[in-house]
Every structure is written in C-alpha cells, then in structure tokens.
Design goal:
Length: 254
C-alpha cells in the first residue's frame, strides 16, 4: 500500500443507487486524465465490477502467481481485482465475516498493485464487517458518497455518514454525488422528470456540511453500455464531461 498515493472509498448507504457504475466511470475518468489507477471491488457478496468491464470470464489462474501474489487484471487502463474472478457468474458467496476479512486482506496485501496515483475501493452498501476490515487494513484519503434523492436512500446515507464520522473510525467525506437525478424527455420540450425526488441530495449535503460533487441523470445509454461492459464515458461526450467535472471536484477536495 506504500506505493499508492491516494486510496478513495466509494460508498452508499443503500444498494441499487449506482455506486459501482460511479466507481467504474470515475476510475476511467482518472485514467483519461493521465493518472495510474486501480479499482478494488470490495463488494464481496455482490461483485459487479467484472461485468461492467466485460472481464467476468477471468479465471484465478490468470491472476495468481506461484508465489501466491496476485496480479490485477487491466481493462481500459484500470488495474482491477474482484472476488468475481474467483466465482462463477451469479454464484452466491455465503461467507461469514472472518472469511470475508481474510480475502480482503489478501486483496490488499498480497496483490501486486504497483505504483498507483489512485486506488478506488468500491464498498458494499450498509455499515458492516467489510467496511471495518477495510478501515483496519488501509488508510483511506477520503470517501465519496453516492445516493439518489429518494428518502429511503437518504436515510441510509445518514447512517453511512455517521459511521465514517465516528472518532475511532473517522475518514474525511470528500463529497456526495446525486445519481439518477432526473429523466430528460427526448422530445422538443426536454422536460425533466424527477423520478426519485428533487434536490434531496443537495439539501442533505448542506445539512451535513459536505460538498455536492455533481448530479448524473437517468439515461438509457448508461444502462446499455454498463451491460455491455464498456465504461459509458468512452461512448458519450455529455456523460464524459459530467464525470470529468465530478472527478476534478474530488481531486480538488484532496
């Protein structure tokens, strides 16, 4: 870990808010800006990073060396490691906390990450064993929170913020991203529909005194390319500009 300059966690209180999609496109945005980047998929029970990079068919023998040190898989310039490389597509991973902790330690300390400017850690939803294990093993420079404006999501975000602000755990919150902010009609009116509520994340950012990093609309093209395993910023200029702006905001916070 001494060869990695900045380790940033991507977190959400609630599942399904697009945290992994954000982690993928932030990582590729950093690569496009000239940085050396790694992505650790710490969502042990629901790894989706391999699918989003179209590398879900990677086998353990492509990663593990005889000396036990693992080598990340490079895709679109990002060095990636995920439990998804060690399990079949859709296979349930039914492990207790100690087993999860052991695997995470291997991913962190027994992996040839090399020299990186950034290591992005895609954390699972909630506040549990995985978060505590990560915080015990590595020093995070900061946390980026992802949420929708839905009350159910925001209530879980409050819990996540509370966890990272506990004195014994404390990690700086770099800011919050509002994902799936609005749906824009394709007709001449270009009307915005706020399917998950309006300005909920912005209001929370003010109440909790954290930076609002930006908003990402609901666009079918994001779903399309995520399912194809292609980071959408490589295919759409509008979305690319949104992510580059958010990425610069994160760098400025650091």
């Amino acid at each position: 870990m001494n060869t990695i300059k900045n380790i940033i966690g991507i977190a959400s209180g609630k599942g399904g808010v697009g945290k992994s999609t954000i982690a993928v496109n932030l990582s590729v945005s950093l690569v496009k800006m000239g940085f050396h980047v790694g992505l650790l998929d710490a969502d042990i029970y629901g790894p989706s990073i391999p699918l989003m990079f179209n590398i879900e068919n990677i086998t353990p023998c492509q990663i593990q060396h005889k000396n036990g040190i693992m080598n990340p898989i490079t895709s679109y310039g990002v060095q990636i490691l995920s439990i998804g490389f060690f399990s079949k597509y859709g296979q349930a991973i039914v492990w207790r906390g100690p087993m999860v902790t052991k695997v995470l330690r291997q991913f962190i300390h027994e992996t040839n990450w090399g020299k990186l400017d950034f290591l992005i850690v895609d954390l699972p939803p909630g506040t549990g064993d995985i978060h505590l294990s990560i915080l015990q093993e590595i020093s995070l420079k900061g946390i980026v929170i992802v949420s929708t404006s839905q009350k159910v999501a925001l209530s879980d975000v409050n819990r996540t913020l509370g966890m990272f602000r506990i004195k014994s755990i404390y990690v700086p919150i770099l800011g919050i991203i509002e994902n799936m902010s609005y749906f824009l009609t394709e007709d001449k009116t270009k009307k915005k529909w706020f399917l998950f509520g309006k300005d909920g994340v912005k209001k929370l950012s003010k109440e909790m005194d954290i930076l609002f990093l930006g908003e990402i609309p609901i666009l079918q093209i994001i779903q399309k390319y995520s399912d194809l395993g292609i980071p959408v910023i490589l295919e759409n200029e509008e979305i690319k500009n949104i992510f580059i702006k958010i990425t610069k905001n994160i760098i400025n916070q650091l």
